[in-house]
Amino acid sequence: MPSPSSRIANIIPSGKDGWEVHFDAMTRHQAGEDIIMLSVGDHDFDTPSETVEAAVKYVRGGFHHYVQLPGLPRLRAAMAKISTRSTGVATSADQVIATPGGQAALYSAVQATLDPGSHAIVVAPYYATYPGTFRAAGADFTVVETRAEDGFQPRRDAIEAALQPNTRAILINTPNNPTGAIYSRTSLEAIAAVCREYDLWLLSDEVYWTLGGGEYLSPRALPGMAERALVINSMSKSHGMTGWRIGWLTGPADLIGLIISLNLVSTYGLTDFVSRAAIEALENDWGVEKIAATYAERRHVVLDALRGTNGVSVRGSEGGMYVMLDIRAVEPDDEAFAWSLLNTEKVAVMPGSSFGDAAAGCIRISLCQPEEVLREAMARLRRHLATMSDRKAAE
Ligand code: PLP
């Protein structure tokens, strides 16, 4: 065949991608091995039944047609209302565009703010698609590591040190995947100050905003940020709708207007009946409280089970769908640890280094399993840690 564009060929560089433990575990699990899968980030429960019933009603009702490119007007209005609630900034429908999931919102945000050859800063650990999303735009990026010892809170000096003359944007994610860290007001104010001082966009991935517990602070709420913040949002996590592919981007109306033309040439708008079910789910908060309470309780179960375990420290892990465990004192090689946990105790977790150097020496434990499964998994993990510690002491 003729050669593909270098842009598309380089989105995912070939070689190891960090998901080897997960895919091996998944293959063995599907073949019937008793493996507890704590390596995935998708709900173990179905979408709330009200949302499902609404979608069935709209499929049967003939809602099978094209919709407006930026989303149905009532959908945009419902999304704007949630953005007003989540970011604390009054948001109108023209400051919102509906997208097929948070990933498409992120893609649009990057396409809209970075030219080929422009530079962005990505705070790590980060969600696995971030580097590819910049490569797809032909943009460069620098990864700024946070430290486990700081609970993965970003630091202003590290971000400033990574600035280049062509830096246009900073990408952050709080509550964070993979660390579960919730960036503090101090951290967010520092990042906002850098954005204002150097005239940068802030791409703020807030898809886990309902899974934090307590009051949520969006950096869009900070002084001077509404004009430069692009907030990535999604119904995947908050409303239990990962497979429905529906999310949105919030930002200045002028930029959103330009992104509508990106939709013209990419998605051509969303699915009609999904949009209509989503409107009802947003307007009625279907599932939101229950899902948030479920993950809060699971986090509590896991943290409780790990309390007092020798040689490990919980880092971040204040929100989102994951707990991050620092296992360096027992085994500095997180990938070796994940393999031995899988092979010995049949528990699959993600090696932290899959998400960048900042999380090396940690494992990411997914909370996407019922409480009793998490309890059993933690018992197995504790047993494995004890065996490894004993072996180390005997060396
Ligand atoms: N951002 C983060 C941090 C995520 O963890 C995910 C999905 O796991 C996404 C964005 C994309 O979510 P969506 O399913 O809405 O595309």
Description:
The structure is a single chain. This protein is of the alpha/beta class. The protein folds into two domains: 6-46 and 288-394, Alpha-Beta Complex (Aspartate Aminotransferase, domain 1), CATH 3.90.1150; 62-284, Type I PLP-dependent aspartate aminotransferase-like (Major domain) (Aspartate Aminotransferase, domain 2), CATH 3.40.640. Helix content is 41%, strand content 14%. It is built from 13 helices and 13 strands. It has a seven-stranded mixed sheet, sandwiched between helices. A four-stranded antiparallel sheet has the order 9-10-13-12, covered by helices on one side. The protein has a two-stranded parallel sheet with strand order 1-11. α4 (73-87) packs parallel to α10 and α11 packs parallel to α13 (371-394).
CATH topology name of the largest domain, in short, is Aspartate Aminotransferase, domain 2
Number of domains in the coordinates?
2
The unreliable regions are: none
- CATH architecture title of the largest domain: 3-Layer(aba) Sandwich
Strand element count = 13
Strand content: 5-15%
Compute the gyration radius: what is it?
21 Å
What fraction, in percent, of the residue positions are helical? 40-55%
Tell me, what's the shape? Answer: globular
Tell me, rounded to a whole number, the average pLDDT.
Answer: 95
Output the keywords.
Aspartate Aminotransferase, domain 2, Aspartate Aminotransferase, domain 1, 395 residues, 13 strands, alpha/beta, binds pyridoxal-5'-phosphate, 2 domains, 41% helix
